[in-house]
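User: Predict the structure for this protein chain, please.
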Amino acid sequence: MRLLMFMAKRFWWKSFSKTLEGVEDIESEDQVADAVVVFMHVEAKDAADRDDVFRKTLKNVKWLANKRDLKRVVLHSFTHLGGENAEPEFAAVFMTELADRLRATGYDVRVTPFGYFNEWELGVYGESLGKVWKEL
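Assistant: Here is the predicted structure, written as structure tokens:
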């Protein structure tokens, strides 16, 4: 798992083009303010240690959100962070379960369209923790 996380003043996204054949056709546009935006690269090796990777991912997202008392989270599949990609089905389920778990603990969670390239605009807070990279 590779995470590139931002404490965002604003994040806007719009679906652009489908990249995976098996996903439904979606036209989506949304935006949030004051959120943790998580660019996630779910890797093939994560399936072998799924529970530990899930726990650590959840912990890191909540840790960063708590640094600024942010209650909104956006999960964005971003397979450009290096490493070998997980199977799309595994990555999609992982992200859905992560979103569900965060919602169960009081976060407003959005997920960008999985299997799509998206347009986006990102405004990030300036402090050091405004941008965090983590490899699990």
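The first helix runs from residue 50 to 67.
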